[in-house]
Amino acid sequence: MARTRFRTARFVETRAALLFISPWLAGFLIFTAWPIVNSAYLSLTDYDVINDPDFVGLDNYRQLFADPKVGLALWNTFVYTALSVPAHIVVSLGLALLLNTAARATGLFRTAYFLPKMTPPVAVGILLLMLFNGQNGLINGVLGLFGIDGPAWTTDPDWVKPGLVLMHLWTVGSSMIILLAALRGVPQELHDSARVDGAGWWRRTLRITVPLISPTLFFLFVVNTINALQSFTEAYTAFFGSGNTTYSNDAALFYVIYLFQQAFEFLHMGYASALAWLLFIVIMLITAVQILVTRRYVHYEGGQP
């Protein structure tokens, strides 16, 4: 009798839980799961939106390895990721450490640093062209005050990606807030003990603070890597928007930009779907490598990885 009541109560709770999450389940199935499955099918077809898909097997994937633009786009994306992710983490951590030591107006500075994150990415792309203009941009103007001849950020292929990386630092506010929350969780007693033993600020930061917030750093490292590999809006707005052909487009041709061009400019939906699946595999492999390589450097509470 008791077992029957337990099963009945469990069934009622399960039904109630499914009812509450049913809106999310419906949204996931319609807007996420179905597009994923459909894109896998479209990647095996020749589809231009206008006509019905024509099954071509693995031809789209064979074309990927013969398309030089794919290699160029992947290289640009990898270089940008390798530059932007470490810079993003270092700047975010530096700002979080500064705010963690602030005695007053912490909330004001926290808000001020986070506000740029609310800037629309399209506006950031336009702002990039204004700030990094090689002739009369603000960045080169400031460098000129110190006698430095600034580079042609938007026309020199060697400086296009560094300029995009610097512009990406405009949006470190969200990562800074996450790191600040992690820093607030570091026990002050550990710092006090290390200070009594003669450890300076730099040594305490490397030996106490960084290991204790390593799970948060690892999370941000993985998330920002995934975001960087999918970079699109700022670079597209600055270098490809409105038929822009003035600037060095090839240096800013990121993978998702090339995917977008194939899908919505050339209407090669089947080929674009194959590009999307290649990106998915690349992201999965890079994430798996990150987990395996950094596992020994991440210290969780209780000592469990």
What does this structure look like?
This protein has about 300 residues and is mainly alpha-helical. The protein contains 14 helices and 2 strands. The protein has a two-stranded antiparallel ribbon. A hairpin with a 7-residue loop joins strand 1 and strand 2. The longest helix has about 40 residues. The mean pLDDT is about 85.
Indicate the overall shape: flat
Strand order of the largest sheet: 1-2
Kindly, what is the distance between the CA atoms of the first and last residues, rounded to a whole number of angstroms? 43 Å
Number of helices: 14
| Rg over C-alpha atoms, rounded to the nearest angstrom | 24 Å
Percent of sequence in beta strands: under 5%
- Uncertain segments: none
Order of helices and strands: HEEHHHHHHHHHHHHH
The main pleated sheet reads as: 2 strands, antiparallel
Summarize model confidence as the mean pLDDT: 87
Helical proportion, percent range: over 70%
Structural class: mainly alpha
Total beta-strand segments: 2
